[in-house]
Amino acid sequence: MTPWLTPHSPQVQAIATLFTQFLVVAAVVFLSVCGLITYCVVRYRARQSGEEPPQHAGSRGLEVTWTVIPLLIVLVLFVLTLRTMAFVDAPQNPARDPDLVITGHQWWWEARYPGAPVTPAITANEIHIPVGRRLLARIESADVIHDFWAPQLARKIDAIPGRPSYIWLQADAPGTYEGTCSEFCGMQHAGMHFRVIAEPEPAFMAWLEHQAAPPSPPTGLAAEGASLFIERKCGDCHAVSPADTRSLIGPPLTHVAGRKLLSGDRPLTAQNLALWITSPQAIKPGNRMPNQQLSAAEVQALTAYMEALP
Amino acid sequence: MSEAALPLPAAESRSAALDWLSTIDHKQIGILYMLLALFFFLVGGVEAMLMRAQLALPNLKFLAPEAYDQTFTMHGTTMIFLVVTPVLIGFSTYLVPLMIGARDLAFPRLNALGFWLQLAGSVLLYVSFAAGGAPDAGWFSYAPLSEKPYSAHAGLDYWALALLLLGTSTTLAAINFIVTIAALRAPGLTIRRLPLFVWMTLVNSGLIVFAMPALNAALVMLLMDRRLHAHFFDAAQGGAPLLWQHYFWIFGHPEVYILVLPGFGMISEIIPVFSRKPIFGYDFVAASTLAIAFLSYGVWVHHMFAVALGKVFLSVFAASSMLIAVPTGVKIFNWAATMVGGSIRFTTAMLFAIAFLLEFTIGGLSGVAFAIVPIDWQLTDTYFVVAHFHYVLFGGTAFALFAGAYYWFPKMSGRMLNETIGKWNFWMVVIGFNLTFFVQHILGLLGMPRRVYTYPNLPWWGALNAISTFGAVILGMGSLIFLVNLASSLIFGAKAGNDPWDAWTLEWATASPPPPENFENVPGVNSRRPLWDLKAGRTAGAPAARPWAARKPEPLFGMKLFVLSEAVFFFLLIVAYIYFRTTGMAAARSSLHLGESATLTACLVASSFTMWRASASGDLKRARLWIVATMTLGLIFLLGQGAEYWRLFQQKVTISQSLFGTTFFTLTGFHGLHLLVGIAALAVLLALTRLRGHQPIAVKVVGLYWQFIDLVWLVIFSIVYLGAWV
Description:
The complex is a heterodimer. Chain A is α+β, with helices and mostly antiparallel strands.
């Protein structure tokens, strides 16, 4: 992941600036303490004579000094904090509908686009956004507490069951931005990665329309896979059509082949798909997908079906 | 609890093992605490090494995710509750009576009970490994991850029960310290002459009394959810996951200061002695401790800045969290100023104290980063946090403890720790510690979340983690050197004598190790450096030494503190009831009978009167009659409550049926349990008076508890019953 100190949104830029200011203040304070202590250690090593040093027990002036100066420093930091907060944070009782709704699940991210002209569009782990627009994102949780964190684009925010939260999500340049869950949420907390893909408005709209379009009917091996998908009740946990808007246990596979990554962090190849279907616990142990004990041929058919969902 | 009631048993008649097992001597119990903590320091250290091994390189498969989750949960819980807390209590238990010229703590048996509860809690926590799995939701166990659906095995139940025992133990110790320091100081040892270690133990104990009940309230709510299917933290049923966070951190942030204030106290003793100057700005060091203690109750939300909360709310807690840096800074400057113009002896103890100043300054400054809300929005829950709190708790507290160990080991054992091994100990720990944790700041800035069992191979991540693991190995070896030094110095160490450091507090005025009675006579105190006064013959004007008979333990004061702690517990349960009231009022009206409950309430009010008669009565026979009357009224209340519960069950109003049931049964149930304890205490009192005659003080002590429980009921009755119809 790229450090958040190379920001790609005005909000994160403001935080990075604040951090730099803080770092300067902290460095000055630390170096003063270091200097004072080094001076003491060098200068006041015990004398050979063994005579007692002068027994100074305090100084009111000094006490006032080192109470007031930190107080002033803290005051400045507080004012900077308030200013940055007001700029960075989205209203928590917004007057308008969110542009997108992001829901944390154990252990994947769901993204919906209620504000889009063509709905529904639901995707997982790869969140597309238009460049240069400040989006209002509502963050929810389907189970335990997660934390949505795309460090270069937005502040992090907890996803809490029963209590939606809001952030501004914005990217000022096209690109792919890494994100991860930042609140411990169980066994695959470490594997709960996602990406935000920022595109120019037309490309984003095209993507959105494509997501809302029904997939073309599968043929050949993929058709076998499609009937297997129904037979094995894969659809109880995974949606494959934009019309299926239920919030399910597993990530939606609607247009899955159009994604770059499988489960948010490895290339979406036939090989990785097959591995995941064959042995769901191999890549991310603890995830909710049971092993269906499929034959090699069945895995091949299902993989072909997945690849036929562009 | 008073000495008159139960004479201290004679020590010389038993074997050494039995002597330690049955001891009520504060020095032995202090050492037991410290040994227990040392053992778990090894265990927690092994857990740390396991984690660092798993994280040494990207994508390792040394620990499976579930094993890693259990390891970091146990590491945190162990280091906080089984290492730092007991070792600090151990030091205070050992040193406070010596430093104030007392013979023991105010309540020696309570002290022993505290230790054995600590041991029981520790064992209970670790039994979880054999009972299906250790807790795995992190040391702050955020609901709903800690709820049954997400952590089905019993690990978290063991965790909650163990913490209840440990919290009780810590609270008892704190009450004991407060009463001891209030009542048993040597003549002339005014509050403003207290050694700063004692002062900070006092403030710390106050923190404990008010902070622990918040944890207890959260824990019983979690247990209700997990074992009885209540819905406190269950959002699907209207519960509030955030309630756990608020309660946990209302305890959790004061807890941070609980873990560090006694360390401040040690530093405040050690730096002056080895600089051969009095502490600079005694009043300011003491007052800033009070400021920290007060502020520490008002900063808990900075652990929750990543939760979307109102801006005003955030601003207030940002301000308080930044403010707390000021009194902390005042301390650092005063410690440093103590060295200015001094004559510094670089003993191992002093080296650790100086290193403490630097490491703790780093930890304090990185803490300010989290008070700056927007920075917290990027850095919280990353490795920057891990670095920060290790600089506070290891660079701060553990360094202070190493310093304290080198400083006081001669007093406790009669032998010096080896200074050459000490220097190795020091440098290995300093280098290992900074290697391990400094790079974690950078990892946090690079975006590495905490509590991940593995991480992708991103630029610098592998290298920095490898450095951190390498540092941990050095740190581990440095800590082992300390153990070697302890063991070898116990046998081969040079004899310490009474006062090896030419120090000035009273513990150095007696033999090393001190005799069972500590001092022959309570010395009179004339200044902040009584032993220097004695050595220099500056005793004119000091109060006369006082014989032991003048000692006056104050059990009633102890009970008052206990009642305060319990009041916070009930306050938080009542707040939880009120928090969910909107869903509960209609249910309360439809299922509760105001008249029945009013009758029962009248019983309790009457029992308050009979209890007061019992306390006021000088005549044993009369007092016993009033006690029996009180017990009878209490039992009638409990039976009535049982009947009410039965009727509610018939109407399918249960703890799992609704939020009303959840809060109602928890609140009234815990009140009922307390009442039952009161009745049991009265029964014990009856037996005791039969055996030993009238115990007016004991009756007053139990009476105070009884009145408190009655008062709690009046509040519950007003809110739950009257409130439902208003």
